[in-house]
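ARCHIVE RECORD
Type: protein–small molecule complex
Small molecule: adenosine-5'-diphosphate
Source of inputs: curated submission
Record status: active
Notes field left blank by submitter.
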Amino acid sequence: MFRKAQYLLTLLCAGITAAILLIMSLIYLYVSETGLSQSQFLSFQHAMDNLVSNIRQQNVITYEWLARMEKNNSYLIRITDNGVPLLFNQRNTDVDRQNTEEEALSYFSSSILLKNLSPVSNTDYHFEFPFTSSLGKDYYACVAQIFHNGQSTEILVLYPIQDLNTKIKMQRLYFALIDLAAVLLLSLFSFFFTKKLLSPIEQNRNEQIQFVAAASHELRTPLAVILSCVSAIKKSSPEEEENFLSTIAAEGQRMSRLINDMLFLSQADAHAFPVRLQPTECDTLLLNSYEAFEPMAKEKNISLTVFLPETPLPPCLCDGERFSQVAAILLHNAISYTPQGGAVSLSLSLDTSKRPESLLLSVTDNGIGISDLEKDKIFHRFYRSDRSRSVKDHFGLGLSIASEIIHSLKGTIQVADTPGGGSTFLVCLPFHRA
Ligand code: ADP
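STRUCTURE (tokenized, with ligand):
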């Protein structure tokens, strides 16, 4: 699904940019080609002005002068005096050239002269116009007539514009190649860019799938126990019935806790769980958590100690309920993953060396510990290490809830090894005095 979206997005990006590039290139080519043709035609007109006035001033047009003009400027020149071609042109035996000259003259008479001058008028003129021969060659042509000493001289100059056409074709080719390369590069860029863009969405979706799968799996176990208890109750004695009912109640509570945890996380995902900052005495709250978990620690013969600052901490702006929730999660884990006879300690201190000041909460145990490989994973939803699977009543959601809370309070949570074995969780929260 994401692959298809990636291809579609790439196609869309590349298509739009290709269209924009093509339109811009066409506009540029049109402007540049028109300018190029116009300036070339203008300089031809200018050259013809000079050539005609040059001929007008010469009494004798020499063979050498004409040959030089043709050679230096790539012109084809044909001159007739009173309708008789000059010797220069009589010597010319190139049939293609003669045909082209005839075509140019007849095109001039039929298309230009008739429109501009009356055929009988005896005035000097010269006209420049573009012309394409029947052989497909393009020229700029000039036809001029000069009346001089009672003689009429007709001049035809053809200037092949193959160079200009080649220039224009090359320019089009360069642009096509540049556009193609740009579209290819852009497609490549869009492909990787859309992949990067879609990857968080894909990851999010995969996490959701895993979350739903893990949640269903966790809910299935207590549900199966409840259903089997219900069917067993029908055939059981009143004493057994009591046992089954208390199992059903315990499993029901387990399910309810799991559902509450999942609801909390879905609220966190939607950024919808409320954080109420109010003046809070964190040391008092931690003492309450310590007292709440003392019986559990005693039951496992675990020594539970708490270290608080000697002088009571001033109240700070914090969400007390969330703070206690984090302390409870860390304490519950520490006691659960520490074997009988172990030790768990809680400590709270204020670091005044930084700005803002920081509240440091640490929960240290000498229990089963967490391998380096798992130190990141334990904050993932439903993650439970193999060593801790035997501990019932844990779903692998506690630390992900704790880390969501800590981040919403703009703090950090880290785990490290306790020297000599076990784990130490360290929470750092900004301390804003109330
Ligand atoms: P759970 O409800 O399973 O404890 P958590 O998200 O709180 O879920 O913890 C995830 C996993 O991290 C636990 O299953 C356990 O493997 C490991 N873990 C957490 N706290 C400790 C600890 N104090 N000592 C050893 N392992 C721990």
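CURATOR ANNOTATION: The two ends are 51 Å apart (CA to CA).
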